[in-house]
């Protein structure tokens, strides 16, 4: 679960930098993405060093998954961090596109 201090921080879809991001005290946690008409691929999750261990990376993942769910698009979780999160939280499997190569590993 996301830490309470992140709940009211707005997710920004930064189209210029091609990343979903949250800003915490002037520092960013973000996920690089690629997008098509029906799919959003999450490539890499990162938090600036100042946010290490704060839960910011997990918060940006949860907010981004919620965004994808609301958008009606399907997810391609290429980012290992996102993939590991999905394995621990199978309730999100429904938004993963079944064409994703490791899809079968999520439903175990």
From TrEMBL:
EC number(s) on file: 2.3.1.-
Pfam families recorded: Acetyltransf_CG
GO molecular-function terms, A-Z: acyltransferase activity
Keywords, ordered alphabetically: Acyltransferase, Transferase
Domain N-acetyltransferase: 12-97
Top EC class of this enzyme: transferase
SUPFAM superfamilies reported in the protein's UniProt record: Acyl-CoA N-acyltransferases (Nat) (SSF55729)
Name of the featured protein: GNAT family N-acetyltransferase
Species of the source: Mucilaginibacter angelicae
